[in-house]
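Q: Protein A?
A:
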Amino acid sequence: MLHPSKTIELFPRDNDHCKRLKDPIETHLFHLEAFLPFSEAVKLDPGNANVRPFSEHKKPFRDMLDTVEKDPGSFHLKNRGITYLCEKFEYDNAKHILRLTVPNIPPSAPKSKLERDLEPLFRREEVPQDDENDEPKFGIADGGHTFEVIRQTVARANELMEQEGWKEPSVRVHFMAGDAAELNLEQVVEALNTSSQVQQYTLDEYQNKFDELKEALEKGGFDTNLVGFRENEEKEWDVREVVQRMACFLKDRWKNTQPASMYRSKGKALDLYTNEATRAEFKKLLDVVRDVITFPEYIQSEFSQGVSVKGKRFGGLRAVKTLKKTFIRPGTDYPTNHEMDLAASLPLAAAFRELLELKGDRYFWRVPPKEVFAKCADDLYKALASKSRTAKSVNSLGSDTEYWTQASNIVLRTKDEMLASRDSK
């Protein structure tokens, strides 16, 4: 769906306060660093990119307010600033105007202070929604607390100006322009806000929300000692990765759309798993969970060493890196001479959810997935190779719903052919 755009005009105090930066890797991502006085930064549309609301009760928030009052000239040095996502930007050196283009999305009704204070207590109980048709992400990706300090400071600027020696503070803003979905900027937002996320999944572990998953993994022959269920555990697997892969196999949830959002955000997958309203969807997968979470490694191994794609230049694909020696990821039995990016392997692996059928309250494989892969590996490889040639970046494969759909159609067609052949005998 196309969204109308709007332009925001900002006025840095000096041309030397506004500089473009070239991304060292991504040719479709553009950067601009700017020092903006608070009275200009407050014009930014906060947007919808930030993953959590600000809290005035946190010590860093109070410390920022204290700096604004007592040492405003040091604010831009002590504060890491704001990361802001936009469609594009341009700077007019002659007129000292920085123009930003952002989606023109009507703001939601403002929340009262009481609503903001209560939001952390209730937001995880809401049923997460599928977001393939979400509004485009833009605005403050990191720095929500900083922006609220700016807003409050500007609101009382006249009062502060009466203080002897007080000068308006400035803030550093890092602007990033590009297609948010194409460049997986949602993952950037999640990474910038990792500290809160990590604490939450650690809390989930303390609340025993992963006990059923641990039991199912052990029953399936997967060593749970390889999985980090809490922050700062240096393990071969991370529980968020496990849940992300499971989320892509929720067959009922992805009937009318593809689970590309689960690739883009492990946090959203984790929210689905830990939410009481949607946890039952994951329980259906517990009998096949080991197959589900290791299938990307199986596909990687088969493309690397299997007979199904002999003669193909697997290592020549953009999403693939050739390894110096054969590697087997702990927890799997699948040797590989290549590392295949998850953006390429997860859409292929998730396509095999088409083979799941429900028996009671648990899924089982209607047709063995490895047998189906042997039949359709060549078609899946062709889809991967074609998309790899045309994709703007490796990461964009994981957001390409057409790629997910192609893979699902290939697997579904192969399953139907195998069942029809079986029934005719």
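Q: Protein B?
A:
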Amino acid sequence: MKLNTLTIKQAGEMLAKKEITSVDLTKACLKQIKETDGKIKACLTVCEKEALNEAKKADERRASGEKGDLLGIPYLAKDNILTSGVRTTAASKILKNYIAPYDATIIKKLRQAGAVLLGKTNLDEFAHGASTENSAYGATHNPWDLTRVPGGSSGGSAAAVASDMCLFALGTDTGGSIRCPASFCGITGLKPTYGRSSRFGLIAMTSSTDVPGPLTKTVADAAVVLSAIAGVDKNDATTVNKPHPNPLLGKERGGLEGLTIGLPKEYFVGGTDKGVADVINQAIEELKKLGVKFKQVNLPHTKYGVPVYYIITPSEVSSNLARFDGIKYGLSIQDTDRAKADLMDIYTKSRGKGFGPEAKRRIMLGTYALSAGYFDAYYLQAQKVRTKIKQEMDKVLETVDCLLTPTAPHIAFKIGEQSSDPLKMYLEDIFVTGASLAGLPAITIPCGFDQGLPVGLQLIGKRFAEAMLFKIGHNYEQATEWHLKRAKV
């Protein structure tokens, strides 16, 4: 077995027995990056020298008697997560030479745990997208089919894990940006509860829904990484002082008898490809064999998830990106035509040339939605509906242990197939925005293939109930072999 193909659990056991070293693991991952990334284009920066130094230090820590699930484990981080001494571009030309003076909290925690940073991964510019085609440095390719997208915005991280360039990767999920690419690439992707892991050191997109989380080869590995990065942070007031998730919770076998999973009627209507629907139904039958009961539930406000998300997100984007481009917002304009004209004037006089098309589009949409005369009609109304969505999901989750849905309505699409249709791209988030708007934890797990490409099922849990998602997901993995399938790059 090639060392780069190991899971965190497998590698940890071998490290503990001194059968391998962290330097061995790191060299194997760096070799895989050199051999395959020319085709996949998952990485924006590779820190070979620094990674080998970190691996050597991890081996020294083990030799001194230190133990740890992530000690000496190589990983990659999405390039909108700040890393001291290593450039962070957010896949934008504006930040092409930016080197952060400090680590994001989650990076700091992983350094303390002894994990080895291999480099930074590609993404849609400033995380704006669902395909990783919006990067200023070129699109990432899906390892299962190089003509297709890996999903986005954490597409580089997903593609890297799926092609064994690392043992795990970090991503950020604002409205599906971990779950969508994990589904398209056939791996596990976890969006933690909002407030579970610190946002300090993330380049903000939508501050009210941004959450960092892991992309891994198994559910158990996701539990290990979450345990390391979770926790309250004085630098992020939205983090909550909750007990850390136990990494062993992702390894429990059995105990599903009597659990009830809700199937939201609104997620199982027309619009999902037949092949995807068939795979999801097979997964439901497999879970029934494990003792899980299912009941249909209703989430009638689901249909408003995408429109609400695409009012709130551009609005917060226009504010968050102002620091990079000097674009002002909150115009005191009443006339619609005049508003459009003034917005365009601001855009052309700014340093907007540094932004890509999708970033510009979201800035314009958000600035318009926040402008005087339109704030109440758009942003305020969207926040009211968001509250309804949250209340509705919380209420339904009082009656079941979690919800199950498809992660995406179809398999990965061809590169360039949807890039000329922004609305169609926004609809990619149809099954994933609800959990983000409600701040709930959600995990995607590979559950089969359609036309030779991976399909993912999504489990949405109660607030801070990641342990339940791990328990169900791990048992499903042990009963199937979908998570063992790997793309041949």
